[in-house]
Specification:
This protein has 15 helices and eight strands. With 442 residues, the protein is an alpha+beta fold. The strands form three sheets. The protein has a four-stranded antiparallel beta sheet with strand order 5-6-7-8, with helices on one face. It has a two-stranded antiparallel sheet with strand order 1-2. It has a two-stranded antiparallel ribbon with strand order 3-4. A hairpin with a 2-residue loop joins β1 and β2. It starts with a helix and ends with a strand.
């Protein structure tokens, strides 16, 4: 009896001791990893940067940046600062009225035409900026709160303004000016993102997508006019002139991340990529900086190896993330989390390639529509060679009673049937319904 009780007591104590031992073991592992990683901070961060990963803002500047006579920065900032002096309600109302003025209608409300006149001075400045050879935007890499790209919200609104302005020009029959302004949107996007991090990449894709949607609307509404479709085709064919430089954006994001992590107390209640982080432990912060440096170096090397192909670069980034996250350690917790925030922004560069394929095919569909009065039953009837870049097969297409649905299988390579309620990594869908063009999945 006594032996049985002793056995029960020993078993209970053993069961109680196991969690204590496990917690103690985890604590030893945690601090050993953090301290050993933090001890490499001086050699890996303070002593400079690698070929791909600058750790100071000055190291990130381009040597060939022309910031004097041929820079887009001055005219762009003049337009941005003037626009930002208007209250937000006025800005939204002006853009809304401009967009309504672009829509064909028998009776034009004078306030819509007035919005066109209001936007003209901004358009002139943005055209001037777009036609410059280079740019150099000053960015606040440290900041007190959220680390945002300069004039981010304003630049999104400028994209809406320029695309609506181009649609008005098309409605008025000025097709050369319309497509020239759509090209100006792409150039502004390129100027803005070339010296930025992945926020700049996201904005670049946003502007290019706005320009593409406006071009498709012009093709549908005015494609029966002489020369319009050839101008549309030329616009689509020029995509590589302003294609995002993903390696450059990754280098910028790497510099920003490592630089911020390297600042004393830099993560005390700081907003970073939309998330509030607080790191109260200096060792943890230094360890995170070292690990983040390791991740960005791995990602940059893999992206450089695929020679700037957007889809291959996206896959290389994801491969780097999977490889980095596979090795579990306490000092990788925050770096893995920060890296995961950027996956979707890197995906955008690949999605833009599919967006151009969709636009190319949409142009062919509009040609058939303007010739026969209806959209074709299949893509083969439209004689398009546009392929889905995610599987190198034909894009998916179906004619509807009110237009068509055209889509790519998207990042995951799986055909979800062109679901309009698309979630992340589902199909990239271009739909024309009663003359209205909508996009999901980018």
């Amino acid at each position: 009896m006594f032996k049985a009780k002793r056995g029960v007591i020993i078993s209970l104590y053993t069961a109680m001791a196991i969690p204590v031992i496990a917690v103690a073991g985890f604590g030893i592992w945690l601090y050993a990893d953090l301290y050993s990683t933090a001890d490499r901070y001086h050699s890996e961060i303070e002593n400079g940067s690698s070929e791909h990963i600058p750790v100071q803002p000055a190291d990130f500047k381009r040597l060939n940046a022309d910031t004097t006579t041929d820079s887009a920065t001055k005219p762009f900032l003049e337009a941005a600062q003037k626009w930002e002096k208007l209250d937000e309600e006025t800005r939204i109302e002006t853009l809304s009225h401009l967009r309504l003025y672009a829509t064909p209608r028998e009776v034009i409300d004078p306030t819509y035409q007035n919005a066109f006149s209001k936007c003209e001075p901004f358009i002139r400045k943005l055209r001037e900026a777009a036609n410059k050879k280079d740019s150099s935007f000053e960015r606040d890499w440290q900041g007190e709160g959220e680390l945002l790209e300069p004039h981010y919200h304003t630049t999104v609104q400028f994209g809406r303004m320029m695309s609506a302005y181009a649609l008005v020009e098309a409605r008025l029959g000025n097709f050369n000016a319309a497509f020239a302004d759509l090209q100006h949107i792409r150039k502004i996007a390129q100027h803005y993102s070339r010296d930025s991090g992945l926020d700049g990449l996201a904005l670049h894709v946003n502007l290019e997508t706005q320009a593409l949607s406006a071009a498709e609307e012009i093709a549908f509404l005015h494609g029966d006019k002489s020369g319009v479709m050839s101008k549309f085709d030329a616009f689509i064919a020029g995509q590589k002139q302003t294609q995002p430089d993903l390696l450059r954006n990754v280098e910028g994001e790497a510099m920003r991340t490592v630089y911020v992590l390297s600042q004393p107390d830099s993560f005390k209640d700081r907003m970073f990529s939309g998330t509030q982080l607080s790191i109260r432990n200096q060792k943890f912060q230094k360890a995170a900086a070292v690990r983040m440096f390791e991740f960005w170096l791995l990602a940059a090397e893999k992206i450089k190896a695929v020679d700037q192909d957007p889809i291959a670069s996206q896959r290389a980034f994801n491969e780097a993330f999977d490889e980095f996250a596979r090795f579990r350690s306490p000092s990788r917790m925050i770096p893995v989390e920060i890296a995961s925030w950027n996956i979707r922004r890197v995906d955008l560069a690949a999605a833009l390639v599919a967006r151009y394929s969709l636009a190319e095919a949409a142009g062919k569909l509009c040609r058939v529509y303007h010739t026969t009065g209806e959209f074709p039953s299949s893509l083969s009837d439209a004689q398009t060679n546009a392929l889905d870049p995610f599987n190198d097969e034909s894009l998916a297409y179906r004619k509807t009673e009110t237009g068509f649905v055209l889509y790519s299988v998207g990042i995951d390579g799986i055909d979800h049937g062109g679901e309009t309620e698309s979630s992340y990594k589902r199909d990239i869908i271009l739909e024309l319904n009663l003359g209205n063009i909508s996009l999901d999945g980018v």
